[in-house]
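anyone seen this seq b4? input:
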Amino acid sequence: MARILVTGGAGFIGSNLVDALIAEGEQVIIIDNLSGGAKENLNPKAEFHQLDLRDLTAIKPLFEGVDFVFHLAAKPRIPLSVKDPIAAHENNLNATLNVLVASRDAKVKKVIYSSSSSIYGNQAELPVKETMPAQPLNPYGLQKYVGELYCKIFYDLYGLATVSLRYFNVFGPRAPREGAYATVIGIFLHQKANGQPLTIIDDGEQTRDFTYVKDVVRANILAAQSQVGKGEAFNIGAGCSYSVNQLAELIGGKTVRIPARSGEIKHSLADASLAKKFLGWQPEYNLESGLKELLKISHA
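predicted toks r here
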């Protein structure tokens, strides 16, 4: 049995990861300040601490004796980072630095860092590969990329094993459906359930690589088990691109168009061949199969 610490373990992806780890018989500690997560997402078999990662003194004792750290806590929405870049910086970078310092000092075996496809910005070619330059369009993407660089530096300087996973548009059970942290699938499902038209930004021809949360959870576990740990970064995406208009058609219902937002990329599509090669990971879901399972769970 490994002792594992999950930051953001009351959040969407984090809570799904915690459930999978506990199902495998691991001992799990959660740190979450509940700013984006919810108590109802918490697995009762996990040890929960409501703390803020920006407070290094408070969190540091919890890292003692920990084998692996999965760092998922963040302010994960682009519009929030554009509106308040200072708060986003504190939560996405200062907190990450504290996690790395605490992990180094506690001699943690490996840190698995949740990064984002936002680091790529708009690339001339698709699908995006890890060898392409980072050119983020917003503070969130920049902060996630600097977090990756910190992970690499902590391996180079201190020998702390780290790996970064660049998630593409994750969806699934427990994803927020309203409020500042909601993403397009959650928003559409909430609107449809409430008899409202689906709000399509701009022309709706922007494309996204929608990735089911179960695939993301599996990627995290494989990254912990793998031999990687020198600060490498891997794309975690389904490798299928859908426009927002296509997504709206799949969900069904009336639509309405709203103005474009600044700092958003136009197209997103992952080349995840490196994750297959080095982590033994490949997606098991596409948008249709993921939506089918999500709706089945939602109606259960």
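Residues 85-105 form the longest helix (21 residues). The chain has ten helices and 13 strands. kinda curious what u guys think
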